[in-house]
Design a protein that fits this description.
The chain is of the alpha/beta class and about 400 residues long. It contains 14 helices and 15 strands.
Length: about 400
């Protein structure tokens, strides 16, 4: 494993993301702890020291799991990052924050109450890194709220050493939103976590976001480096082109080596679900091996051929609130496949109601929560039409 730095702290170039831990089939909040623990133990024994979680990952169970999983290790042998969930909050009276629709059953709380709950769930008395989760055009209403004082609160926790370093994550539509936030809070944040990969460089202006962050002298932590696994499985033609240049290298390795070309990237997070994935990723980060110019040019061509994809990352934020119980990310993956000439003939939504886009009632609960801003009901309607399914 090679290492980089955030504000003088030595961080592993590969970080363990804890939003795609192994779970029981179709039950995102039921982590298979034995398997997940094996992955964490592998990470710890192979030099990964950065562990990223968030209040809402795995329906709130990710923080609980990682706290327990890391408990057997000395506190100074790992760096723990979690996130304040302002992006899914609504303000109520008297400093109380409630959670947005689609999260029924989650209690109202206060800014301080949420933070204390996180420390408790993670079984730690400080976070090495603490982020405001998804600062974007909508969530600014919470993060900038003059009564809630979220930024002042986290600064105070930092002064008391209950937070060692501050950052924020962002799925903002515009790089200017990130730039403005960093300008208004100049000097507060040491890093920003963004969705960054060779496809989003153009598709979601990750290039502009990277430039906006680094001009403030702030480090970049990468999420969705392989787009929730989508860049690990490319269409046949593109796979063949990569294989011709580097036989035996997986598409995921290409995506991760592309990220190694960016000097201000400190940590590349990967939400690793299996031991095979972590083994391969650890190997990729044994030493820096950035792409050559010819390899970079080829990957740009591959990315350009995929710009018509619906940019779902498989985060599953949308599935909790779907009244029809649709497997939205899987349906979108199938839609992308069909659009790119894959398995139309093999797709049989009648075999599984959760995979039937024709059952979408167009309520929009999913679209309002999707960090990628995908018009999910429109995709469902189009896909249902493509499959010649009646809408019902
Ligand atoms: S719009 Fe369709 S896919 Fe989205 S939550 Fe409603 S029923 Fe589910
Ligand atoms: S549609 Fe949006 S919210 Fe749902 S899994 Fe994909 S990216 Fe996540």
């Amino acid at each position: 494993m090679y290492y980089k730095e955030i504000a003088g702290v030595k961080v592993s170039a590969l970080g363990m993301g804890n939003m795609r831990l192994p779970t029981l089939q179709g039950q995102d909040n039921k982590i298979i702890t034995e398997k997940a623990q094996e992955i964490i133990d592998y990470a710890m024994s192979h030099g990964i020291n950065y562990y990223d979680t968030a209040y809402r990952y795995h329906g709130g169970e990710s923080e609980r799991f990682i706290g327990q999983a890391l408990k057997k290790y000395p506190r100074d042998s790992f760096l723990l990052a979690s996130k304040f969930p302002g992006h899914m909050m609504v303000k109520k009276e008297g400093g109380v924050v409630g959670f947005t629709s689609g999260l029924a059953g989650w209690p109202d709380n206060t800014v301080a109450g949420v933070f204390e709950e996180q420390l408790k769930k993670c079984q730690v008395d400080y976070f090495d890194f603490y982020l405001l989760h998804n600062v974007n055009e909508k969530s600014l209403a919470i993060y900038d709220d003059p009564e809630l004082q979220v930024v002042e609160f986290v600064k105070k926790q930092k002064a008391e050493r209950r937070i060692r370093h501050l950052g924020f994550s962002s799925h903002a539509s515009s790089a200017a939103t990130i730039d403005d936030f960093l300008t208004r809070y100049e000097g507060v944040f040491d890093f920003v976590q963004i969705q960054l990969n060779y496809l989003d460089w153009k598709l979601q202006d990750a290039r502009g976001k990277y430039a906006a962050i680094t001009k403030h002298g702030v480090k970049v932590v990468v999420m969705e480096g392989v787009r929730g696994g989508r860049l690990a499985k490319l269409p046949e033609e593109q796979t063949a082109r990569l294989q011709a240049l580097r036989p035996g290298d997986s598409a995921a390795r290409w995506a991760l080596r592309w990220l190694q070309c960016l000097p201000e990237v400190a940590v590349v997070l990967s939400g690793m679900t299996t031991l095979e994935q972590i083994r391969e990723n650890v190997e990729t980060f044994e030493a820096p091996d950035p792409l050559s110019q010819a390899e970079g040019a080829l990957l740009t061509e591959v990315a350009d051929s995929m710009l018509n994809w619906v940019p779902c990352t498989g985060c599953r934020y949308c599935t909790e609130g779907c009244p029809m119980g649709l497997e939205i990310p899987k349906i979108i993956a199938a839609y992308n496949g069909v659009k790119n000439g894959d398995f139309m003939a093999r797709y049989d939504p009648a075999a599984d109601p959760a995979m039937d886009p024709g059952r979408c009632v167009g309520c929009g609960a999913c679209a309002s929560i999707c960090p990628q801003g995908i018009s999910i009901p429109a995709v469902m309607a189009e896909f249902a039409g493509m499959l010649k399914l009646p809408r019902r």
